[in-house]
């Protein structure tokens, strides 16, 4: 497909309409889960034709992945530049309030389980969310290296995203509480920054 044709297809849906569709998809995901979600249900909920949905997104996996990406607060992680790694990590955490974190935590737990049995969903998440986020996060860390905050040979650099996701997920699994801004900010200061050799104050 040429870029011109792809742009023409995308232009048939306005950004406002696209946002409405994504919100409806997320609502359905929270109600029925990924496996029970159907393109028919999305079409009915959004008063769209199923043909339009398939033409625009190709299938359920890509639609869901793009809906989750659209729901992510703020732009790419590397758009945040406070002048320090601690400031950047705190600013990224503060993009979501506690209510949003709780909703997103429940949604992502369900999708993580669904990915185990749905290779298409895993691929879509890698393409549209995981890889772009990892690349943006690497740029945040590279700025910290360039500023001299983090040594380039620090072995923890490759695991920062793992630590961040781990803290978010473990809050519910271990403490049986939703992640909150206060918890994640203290986790960054107590775990992530010391692993990178960065002062937490």
TrEMBL record:
The HTH tetR-type domain, residue ranges: 15-75
Tagged with keyword Aminoacyl-tRNA synthetase: no
DNA-binding region per UniProt: 38-57
PROSITE patterns xrefs: HTH_TETR_2
Source organism, top-level taxon: Bacteria
Pfam families with a match to the protein in the record: TetR_C_11, TetR_N
Alphabetically ordered keywords of this record: DNA-binding, Transcription, Transcription regulation
Keyword DNA-binding: yes
The protein, known as: TetR/AcrR family transcriptional regulator
Species name: Streptomyces cinerochromogenes
UniProt lineage: Bacteria, Bacillati, Actinomycetota, Actinomycetes, Kitasatosporales
